Every structure is written in structure tokens, then in C-alpha cells.
Q: What sequence folds into this?
């Protein structure tokens, strides 16, 4: 009996209370401003959720870049006389002609040279372009190297002997062989027929004699962040004596350089050009630079590439390389930075 009375008592106040809540809900819904506030709150929650998802996606993309198997493939630049340069590089430096293409209908020819097969060695890609003029086809015999491009470097066991060979073949020696200032490493500088500088570095036997590409930058810290973030795996394959490195040099007080029209770009391998482009997009939004070619196949061939400019305007091509091609580089190490600072300049080596 007591339980029945308790139930009746609860029902006597619970049912009116429920009716009150229902009427209150209808009352609140009659205020558009309040509805807008609730909707706005929901939008903020949705935006926060979307931002969090974007952050996770960005972090995943950068993590992928650290695991991607990459290496320098080749540097591309223009020369005035292709056959003359091929002769100079093979006879003076001991490079091999890996392949050559003549495409008359496109007024274009190029050649790949290096110290070993392209699937395991860095190479130079020499381009020679033709101009259609009134009197017929004439080759462009001179290009502007600009002030931004520095030099290539070749490691050799005997700098003195190599310099004499270059001199005998008519090459120009711009720095006689000798130890670097304050050190013991023997170096020399020579110039090819188009004016490109080559640093000759005395070292023991190395699997990658074509060992450096030096570019000048206007903000070294920004460049280091850019290449660390995007290329932490791309430039980290082995000890500096076993792989090609990118040398970035900053001259104090100089923030701008001319690019000229001679040096073009470096090419780097990747397992996925589309994911690489995502990473480039993230890094360029933060540090500068831009994608100049969206990822996709080159017309007429199956090779997929994406191209971008770094914060200083240096162009990089990221090229899809088949998985079997890159598996032999699984032993490569993480990137290491060596920063050298002197009174008038600073440089870092990315590898």
C-alpha cells in the first residue's frame, strides 16, 4: 500500500514536469538568435574537428616523407656545344656517356654522363637547345650561369694528376691544387668549356665520385628547415664519402642571387610523386617556394614527376622510381647536417 502511494505521488509531479520541459523546448525554438547560437557552436565544433583531422593528415604526410626511399638522380643544366662538353667530361674527368638523345623536331638534344649506371649513381643531364631563326637552325652557344649556382664537385684519389690532365686537354684551372685554408684536404677548381666550375676534392676510393652540387641561398636557416622537413630521407643515404650531397652556401649580407638560364634543376627519386607533392605543398606553405608542376605522368612516356621551387627559387624534380629500383638503397641512413661558418660565409651540407 505504501509503495502504491509513493508511485502515485511521483506521477503527480513527474508528468506535469515533463509537460513543462516540452513547452520550454518549443519556447526556446521560437528564438532564431538562440538557434543561430546553437548552430554556430556546432559549426565551431565541426571546424575544430576538421582542423584536427588536417593536422593529423599533415603529420602523417611528413612521417611518410621520412620513410620514403629517395636519392639524387641527376642535375640538369644547359650547354652550348653538347659534343664538345661530352668530349671534355669523358677525357678530362673520366666520366662515361650513359645515354644521348637527339630530338630535331623539338630542336632539343640531351646527354647523361656520370661515373656509373644511372640506377645507382648520380649523373649530369646536359641539355642543348636549338633556336629557329630566319637563316635556319642554329644552336644556342652561350648561357648565363648567374651568381646563384656555385659548382659541382668530383672526388678523386689524385687531385694534382687530374688537374694536369684537365690542363693538357685545354681546360681552365681557376685554383691550383693545394690544401684548403686551415685544413689538410687537397682541392682545386677547374672550369668546363661553358664556364661551369668543378671542385676537385682529394679522397680515397668512393662509390660516388660526382659528390656535390653547390647552390647559394639567401637565408641559410630557412633553407635548412625546408630541406630537413621535406628531404630528411631524400638526402640521407650514406656517409658523405659515399653519396652525393647538396651544399647550400650563404654569403653574409647577400640575400639575392641571379639564376641565369644555364643551370636548371636537380632530380630526386621517390616511391610516390603524389604523396611527395602533398609534403611539398605543406612545407612550401610554411617556408616558401611553390609547386610548379602538379604530380602526374610526362606526356608520351610513363615516368611520373612533380616539380617545385624551394624558398630561393631553385627547382627540384621529384621522379617516380619503381620499387625494385630503390630497394637496393634500404640501408641508407638518416640525413645529417654539417654546418660550416667562416667570417664571410656559411654553408651546410645536406646528405
A:
Amino acid at each position: 500500500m505504501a509503495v502504491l502511494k509513493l508511485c502515485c505521488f511521483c506521477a503527480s509531479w513527474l508528468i506535469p514536469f515533463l509537460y513543462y520541459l516540452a513547452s520550454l523546448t518549443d519556447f526556446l525554438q521560437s528564438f532564431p538568435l538562440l538557434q543561430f547560437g546553437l548552430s554556430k557552436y556546432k559549426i565551431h565544433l565541426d571546424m575544430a574537428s576538421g582542423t584536427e583531422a588536417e593536422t593529423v593528415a599533415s603529420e602523417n604526410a611528413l612521417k611518410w616523407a621520412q620513410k620514403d626511399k629517395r636519392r639524387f638522380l641527376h642535375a640538369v643544366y644547359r650547354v652550348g656545344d653538347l659534343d664538345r662538353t661530352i668530349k671534355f667530361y669523358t677525357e678530362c674527368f673520366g666520366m662515361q656517356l650513359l645515354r644521348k638523345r637527339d630530338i630535331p623536331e623539338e630542336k632539343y638534344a640531351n646527354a647523361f654522363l656520370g661515373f656509373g649506371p644511372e640506377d645507382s649513381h648520380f649523373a649530369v643531364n646536359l641539355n642543348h637547345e636549338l633556336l629557329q631563326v630566319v637563316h635556319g637552325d642554329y644552336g644556342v652557344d652561350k648561357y648565363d650561369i648567374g651568381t646563384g649556382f656555385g659548382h659541382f664537385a668530383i672526388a678523386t684519389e689524385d687531385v694534382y694528376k687530374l688537374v694536369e690532365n684537365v690542363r693538357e686537354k685545354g681546360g681552365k684551372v681557376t685554383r691550383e691544387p693545394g690544401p684548403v685554408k686551415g685544413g689538410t684536404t687537397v682541392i682545386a677548381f677547374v672550369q668546363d668549356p661553358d664556364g661551369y666550375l668543378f671542385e676537385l676534392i682529394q679522397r680515397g676510393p668512393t662509390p660516388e665520385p660526382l659528390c656535390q652540387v653547390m647552390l647559394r641561398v639567401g637565408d641559410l636557416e630557412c633553407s635548412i628547415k625546408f630541406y630537413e622537413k621535406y628531404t630528411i630521407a631524400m638526402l640521407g643515404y650514406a656517409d658523405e664519402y659515399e653519396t652525393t650531397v647538396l651544399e647550400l652556401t650563404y654569403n653574409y649580407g647577400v640575400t639575392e642571387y641571379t639564376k641565369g638560364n644555364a643551370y636548371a634543376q636537380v632530380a630526386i627519386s621517390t616511391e610516390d610523386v603524389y604523396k611527395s607533392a602533398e609534403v611539398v605543398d605543406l612545407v612550401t606553405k610554411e617556408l616558401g617556394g611553390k609547386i610548379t608542376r602538379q604530380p602526374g605522368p610526362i606526356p608520351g612516356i610513363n615516368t611520373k614527376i612533380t616539380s617545385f621551387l624551394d624558398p630561393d627559387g631553385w627547382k627540384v624534380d621529384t621522379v617516380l622510381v619503381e620499387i625494385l629500383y630503390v630497394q637496393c638503397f634500404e640501408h641508407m641512413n638518416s640525413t645529417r647536417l654539417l654546418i660550416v661558418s667562416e667570417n664571410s660565409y656559411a654553408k651546410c651540407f645536406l646528405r
